[in-house]
Amino acid sequence: MSTLENNGYKDEIFTKRVRAGKRTYFFDVKSTKSEKDFYITITESKRVGEEEYEKHKIFLYKEDFDKFREALAETVTYVQTQLLVPAEATEKAE
Question: In degrees rounded to 5, what are phi and psi of residue 67?
Fold first, then answer.
């Protein structure tokens, strides 16, 4: 039995939910209609009313995984080393 059959969905292979304050992020691995290929969707879901959500979605195809991962890692490293550390050092000095 394949992973696709195990989860009961034809196109959803894997999902990871990350709750972050008022937002929830979903990282989903999905198969194409032919089930011969796959891609990732990243969805940001934000509550904007009692029963209403605003969603934004990015489709990431396997040929772009390495470039996306490298850019994300570089961006996070920049924020951590160039923006957060100096601000924390300033706060400690006060």
Answer: -65, -40
Total Cβ atoms within 10 A of residue 48: 11
Instruction: Convert the pLDDT of each residue in 72-90 to its tens digit.
Output: 999 999 999 988 866 555 5
Architecture per CATH, domain 3-93, reads as: Roll (3.10)
Q: CA of 75: how far to CAs of 21, 68, 70, in Å?
A: 21, 11, 9
Q: Please name the residue that has the structure tokens 């796959």.
A: 38
DSSP collapsed to 3 states, 58-69: EEEEHHHHHHHH
Instruction: Break the chain into its structural domains and give their ranges.
Output: 3-93
pTM for the full predicted model: 0.72
